[in-house]
Design a protein that fits this description.
Structural class: mainly alpha
Order of helices and strands: HHHHHHHHHHHHH
Largest sheet: none
Strand content: under 5%
Length: 335
């Protein structure tokens, strides 16, 4: 077959295919059902399908969520403690948590200041502990450290209205005093009593070393210790009623604590405990608290005689059977 004939055959074939495509397209359009207008009434839903929005209903444009500012601690924290506390309260921080945060921050601040007083900002010698430096540095540094402690206590009271020693006890022991021995008092009185206690403990701790350095006699040291205890009781009497002061001493004095430990197996009644306590307290005040440094023979003989008299008085108060129980309990506590 020559080329002109072949070209004519191909042209007819292409024209036929084009005509077929157009015809099939028109047939497809006529066989497809026209879309019905959207129903305006309620749409009945199958019990097994979700009810959807009719096609003609306009889809609302979604409202963008409001932008929130990310929380940063720097927006709360402040170098001004008053503002810092106000910011913490503004975000709903619990009051006890605010106390814990602020007290920890203040403690950190004063630890740095304390270290500065002790070491002068220098690294301590490798053969010395930091704790040994204040004594080596003398009374001047010790006094500065006590002043720092008082300043910290005052700052916490001004900022939070609480007693620092009480709050630290809460964090250590879960109560305001060991075994909550101050729990019979109102919170306000607990704080005031605790402040007196901390102040007197400081003075008591300073008195013995200073008396030794100054070469005071045992009688002079005893007189100062007695005076310090009298001052303590006078301060407490301004805070507590006579009944509360009596209860305070029965709860917290060294004599009471020692007796409770010794007489646990004895299980004394209230009357028995107070009877023994009053006798023991008089002996402790005369021959233990302010007498411990006396070790000469005449002093030891006086103490031994007073001890015998004390036991006779306790025996008279308790009676024979209970006194025997009392001696057995004391012996058991020393094993």
């Amino acid at each position: 077959m020559n080329s002109p004939v072949l070209v004519r055959i191909l042209s007819v074939a292409v024209l036929g295919l084009s005509t077929l495509v157009v015809y099939q397209g028109r047939q497809l359009q006529t066989s497809t059902p026209q879309s019905q207008p959207a129903a305006t009434g309620p749409v009945a839903a199958s019990p097994h399908s979700r009810v959807t929005t009719p096609a003609a209903a306009a889809t609302p444009t979604p409202t963008p969520a409001p932008r929130t500012t990310p929380f940063h601690w720097r927006n709360v924290e402040s170098s001004d403690y008053g503002k810092y506390i106000a910011n913490l309260r503004a975000i709903g921080c619990p009051e006890q948590t605010i106390r814990d945060i602020v007290i920890a921050d203040v403690n950190k601040l004063f630890v740095a200041r304390r270290a500065e007083r002790i070491t002068g900002g220098r690294v301590p010698p490798y053969w010395q502990t930091v704790e040994s430096l204040p004594a080596a540095a003398g009374a001047r540094i010790q006094q500065q450290l006590l002043e720092l402690d008082r300043e910290k206590t005052s700052l916490i009271r001004d900022l939070l209205g609480v007693d620092l020693a009480t709050e630290l006890r809460k964090s250590r022991e879960g109560v305001t005093y060991p075994e909550n021995r101050h729990g019979f008092l109102s919170e306000e009185k607990q704080d005031l009593v605790s402040a007196v206690r901390e102040e007197m403990n400081e003075k008591w701790a300073l008195l013995q070393p200073s008396a030794s350095r100054e070469g005071k006699t045992p009688d002079e040291i005893s007189a100062e210790l007695r005076k310090l205890n009298e001052d303590r009781l006078a301060r407490l009497a301004q805070i507590l009623t006579p009944e509360e002061l009596r209860e305070h001493e029965l709860q917290t004095s060294w004599t009471a604590i020692n007796l409770r430990n010794q007489l646990a197996a004895f299980q004394p009644s209230s009357a028995e405990f107070t009877a023994v306590y009053d006798l023991q307290k008089a002996f402790d005040d005369a021959y233990v608290h302010y007498y411990g440094s006396r070790n000469d023979e005449p002093a030891l003989q006086r103490k031994e005689l007073a001890q015998q008299q004390l036991e006779a008085q306790i025996r008279s108060q308790l009676g024979e059977q209970r006194y025997a129980d009392y001696l057995a309990a004391k012996a058991g506590s020393h094993r």
